């Protein structure tokens, strides 16, 4: 049987919040693949003034006595933000009922924000028994009430018999937001194996400060590797680190500026000398990987597809950051892989 929603929680009508003009660039979201997606789609429609679409997410029980009343209820609202928790489900009489923990923050045209929290109940009539027209997941009712909690923390732990949502990794979320803000329009939207680029590889590095005493506790630095883009034979990645002092910040990688001398100035000929004439910083690494055993990030930039000409940097984690410790260059286009080390801070002089 369907779970009981918050006892003593009054039905919360969306029409209780008024609305004005919203930003024209609010994303269009119409996703009915699961119950939480329907709730997010509802507020996408509201924020875009697409009230007919918002009305359509409801089933037989509507949020207001009629559509005009529903629309007028938003005359003073600037925007409505929404967060959802882990949904629970229960089957009954040919239907599946979903309970979704929800928190919304309604901001009026004067900038005053109010938080509401509670549960939405949604219904999906079993698809195999339906006849045209097909009915997707629909909102059955919402039971929200004013909340004194911060919006970020206002989502209920669970609804009915549903499990509490997993504890949010706030540092990871900050790194993801930083990546999207800087590279959302520059990097690919998914990795070659179909995963979203906003889901990074994550590592935890524990260490002691160089001057710390024997009894000093270990510190932790988080490392996040975000895939960015794939070309013919090189792929790029962006890295962020985070600690309890500096917070989340993007890694910038030092690399040498090179003066390469070829015999007779022929780049296809013999390499006479490779000189370092300066240094630069790179915000992305090419063909890179992190080795947790050696605590190093390596980057190998192929100058052409066969890989016989390339540059390779090695960055070592020490004292809470990554430093360039070795740089190898294979400047000859001779069909062989024979790099030479032009910078080595691993070896004592």
Q: Explain this structure to me?
A:
The protein has 4 helices and 17 strands. The model is unreliable at 1-23 (pLDDT under 50). Strand 15 and strand 16 (321-330) form a beta hairpin. Strands 1, 2, 3, 4 and 5 form a 5-stranded antiparallel sheet that branches. Strands 6, 7, 8, 9 and 12 form a 5-stranded antiparallel sheet that branches. A 5-stranded antiparallel sheet has the order 13-14-15-16-17, with no helix packed on it. The chain has 349 residues and is mostly beta strands. 29% of the residues are buried.
Instruction: Kindly state the number of beta strands.
Output: 17
Overall spatial form = elongated
> Helix content range of the residues, please?
10-25%
Q: DSSP helix count?
A: 4
Low-confidence stretches: 1-23
Give the distance, in angstroms, between the N- and C-terminal Cα atoms.
75 Å
Which structural class do you get from the secondary structure elements? mainly beta
Write the H/E string, N to C: HHHEEEEEHEEEEEEEEEEEE
Chain-averaged pLDDT: 86
Major sheet summary line: 5 strands, antiparallel
Strand fraction equals 35-45%
Rg computed from alpha carbons, rounded to a whole number of angstroms: 28 Å
Highlighted features:
5-stranded antiparallel beta sheet, 40% strand, disordered N terminus, elongated, mainly beta
Quick summary of this structure?
With 349 residues, the protein is mainly β. The chain has helices at 35-47, 51-56, 67-72, 170-183, and strands at residues 77-84, 88-92, 95-108, 113-125, 138-146, 201-207, 219-230, 235-243, 247-250, 253-262, 271-282, 285-286, 288-291, 296-302, 310-318, 321-330, 340-344. Residues 1-23 have low confidence and may be disordered.
């Amino acid at each position: 049987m369907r779970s009981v929603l918050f006892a003593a929680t009054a039905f919360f009508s969306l029409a209780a919040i008024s609305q004005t003009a919203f930003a024209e660039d609010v994303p269009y979201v119409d996703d009915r693949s699961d119950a939480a997606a329907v709730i997010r789609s509802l507020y996408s429609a509201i924020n875009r003034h697409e009230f007919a679409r918002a009305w359509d997410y409801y089933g037989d029980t509507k949020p207001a006595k009629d559509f005009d009343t529903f629309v007028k209820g938003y005359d003073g609202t600037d925007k409505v933000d929404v967060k959802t928790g882990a949904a629970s489900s229960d089957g009954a009489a040919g239907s599946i009922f979903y309970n979704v923990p929800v928190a919304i923050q309604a901001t009026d045209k004067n900038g005053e924000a109010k938080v509401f929290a509670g549960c939405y109940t949604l219904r999906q009539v079993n698809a195999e028994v339906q006849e045209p027209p097909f009915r997707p997941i629909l909102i059955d009712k919402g039971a929200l009430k004013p909340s004194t909690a911060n919006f970020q923390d206002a989502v209920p732990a669970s609804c009915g018999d549903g499990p509490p949502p997993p504890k949010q990794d706030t540092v990871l979320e900050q790194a993801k937001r930083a990546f999207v803000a800087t590279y959302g329009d520059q990097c690919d939207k998914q990795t070659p194996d179909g995963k979203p680029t906003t889901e990074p590889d994550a590592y935890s590095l524990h260490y002691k400060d160089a001057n710390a005493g024997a009894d000093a506790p270990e510190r932790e630095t988080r490392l996040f590797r975000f895939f960015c883009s794939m070309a013919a034979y090189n792929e790029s990645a962006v890295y962020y680190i985070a600690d309890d002092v500096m917070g989340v910040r993007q890694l910038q990688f030092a690399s040498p500026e090179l003066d390469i001398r070829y015999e007779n100035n022929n780049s296809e000929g013999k390499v006479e000398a490779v000189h370092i004439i300066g240094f630069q910083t790179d915000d992305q690494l090419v063909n890179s990987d992190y080795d947790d055993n050696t605590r190093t990030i390596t980057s190998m930039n192929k100058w052409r597809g066969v890989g016989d000409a390339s540059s390779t940097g090695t960055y070592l984690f020490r004292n809470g950051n990554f430093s360039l410790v070795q740089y190898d260059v294979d400047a000859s286009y001779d069909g062989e892989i024979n790099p030479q080390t032009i910078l080595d801070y691993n070896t004592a002089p």
